[in-house]
Every structure is written in structure tokens, then in C-alpha cells.
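Translate structure to sequence.
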């Protein structure tokens, strides 16, 4: 299962079509949480937060927030840092 998920996530971040990336992330429901909360898969989801498509960013953040129940030690520091980035952008009126 983990090898399939790694390939799936690779496609979810690397596909040139925005809609494919959105659809793939939308399909990652809570049944995948134990597999998604591994460090390698988390790094891939962290990359999705920087996607140029807002919907991909939103979905990846929602997944990461959901996964924080399973692996808070790896996820919460990233989410705090990302919140700081968003707040700074709002402060600079560039968001």
C-alpha cells in the first residue's frame, strides 16, 4: 500500500494539470491517514502547500491538519511556520 501511495502522491504534486492535482488530493480521505502520516508522505504533502493553485494549497493544508492527530510532532511545527508566512503576507498586503 505504501508504494502505491508514494506513486499516487508523486503524481498528485507533479501533474501539470491543476484539476488532476485537485482531484487526487480530494480522494485522500481519512482511510488513508495511517499511511499518509509517515515522514516521506508528509514531505510530499508539505510540497503541495506551495502549489500555484489555491485549491491544491487548501486541500493539502486540510489533509495536514487532519493528520496532525496522528503525527503532531512532524506536522504542527510546519503548520505554525506556514501560518507565520500567511500572516506576514497579510501584513505586507501581498497575500
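Result:
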Amino acid at each position: 500500500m505504501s508504494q502505491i501511495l508514494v506513486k499516487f502522491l508523486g503524481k498528485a504534486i507533479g501533474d501539470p494539470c491543476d484539476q488532476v492535482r485537485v482531484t487526487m488530493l480530494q480522494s485522500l480521505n481519512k482511510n488513508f491517514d495511517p499511511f499518509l502520516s509517515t515522514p516521506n508522505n508528509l514531505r510530499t504533502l508539505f510540497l503541495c502547500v506551495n502549489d500555484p493553485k489555491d485549491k491544491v494549497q487548501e486541500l493539502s493544508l486540510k489533509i495536514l491538519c487532519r493528520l496532525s492527530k496522528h503525527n503532531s510532532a512532524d506536522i504542527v511545527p510546519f503548520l505554525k511556520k506556514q501560518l507565520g508566512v500567511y500572516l506576514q503576507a497579510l501584513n505586507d498586503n501581498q497575500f
